[in-house]
Specification:
Shape: globular
Helix content: 10-25%
Order of helices and strands: HEEE
Mean pLDDT: 88
Number of domains: 1
Structural class: mainly beta
Distance between the termini: 22 Å
Radius of gyration: 14 Å
Largest sheet: 3 strands, antiparallel
């Protein structure tokens, strides 16, 4: 892709895809949306599925931008390398 000038891609998928990309160290930016609805329980959706990550290997994020539209929050984070 780099040979074709593609520098960024967007990965839209479920928690399994996100977990694999995190494990491979391939996510530079995160765009998260917080809606004013609370889901709970052990089967509640999560951005990252699977075994999860221990604190020493979990991605650490730096907040870049916030935007509020009504009661929704849009957050942009960058992965700290």
């Amino acid at each position: 892709m780099a040979e074709r000038g593609i520098r960024k891609i967007v990965a839209l998928g479920g928690g399994s895809l996100t977990a694999a990309l995190v494990k491979a160290g391939r996510i530079d930016d995160w765009w998260l949306t917080i809606w004013p609805i609370i889901f709970g329980g052990k089967h509640a959706p999560s951005p990252v599925e699977g075994e999860g990550f221990l604190p020493d290997v979990a991605p650490h994020l730096e907040l870049i931008e916030t935007r509020q539209v009504g009661s929704d929050l849009f957050l942009h984070y960058r992965t700290v390398k």
